[in-house]
Amino acid sequence: MVSKIDSSSIVISQIGFAAAYIVFTSENLRAFTANVSSYDVTDINIVWFILLQVVIIVPLSLIRDITKLSLSAVFANVFILTGLVTIVYFMLYQWLGVNHGIGLIIPIQESMIHPNNFPRVLGQVILTIAVIMIMVGSLGYLTFGDKIKTVVLLNLPQDSPMVIITQLLYSLAILLSTPLQLFSPLDYWNRK
């Protein structure tokens, strides 16, 4: 009974995180489209941006070997790092001027060559992410104050090629990493 409750809560949380990612990516894609075209994107229903992602996410989510998702995860990480560098660059320039991965712990540990190293690797990853989040969050607040937007990219100059590329890269990064978020719920569902 308890394991079913645990598994169900992981499934629900991972699907919720994936839904939040899809909404975030839709907003980013809308901003990207507005920046690269003369079309008024307010006329485009956000549902179209969501459907575009579903066409990509569904086939990738059907991959049942987590190691085969590693290439898309590497691309996603490179895109996110590029985005972080861009965000920090603009914040520094202007300033001078949930644990949503919890459902992936077991599949990642099981796919490792040396699973016994997992606690050490996890600790290093959590520390690194915490430092980056504190740094970027603090820098964002110091730069924009209470005018900071939920998607900090929207605070950056919307006509900058770096920002426009970053909007696209972040959207692609989340799009490519969403199947990894859905791996555990789909794996649980397939075992039923």
Automatic annotation (TrEMBL):
Coiled coil residues, start to end: none
Membrane topology recorded in Swiss-Prot or TrEMBL: Multi-pass membrane protein
A Gene Ontology cellular-component term: vacuolar membrane
Main localization (coarse): membrane
Keywords on record: Membrane, Transmembrane, Transmembrane helix
Residues covered by the Amino acid transporter transmembrane domain: 8-92, 101-190
Keyword Ribosomal protein annotated: no
InterPro entries, sorted: AA_transpt_TM
Residue spans crossing the bilayer: 7-24, 44-62, 74-96, 121-142, 163-183
Similarity-based family: Belongs to the amino acid/polyamine transporter 2 family.
Name by which UniProt lists this protein: Transmembrane amino acid transporter family protein
Organism: Candida albicans (Yeast)
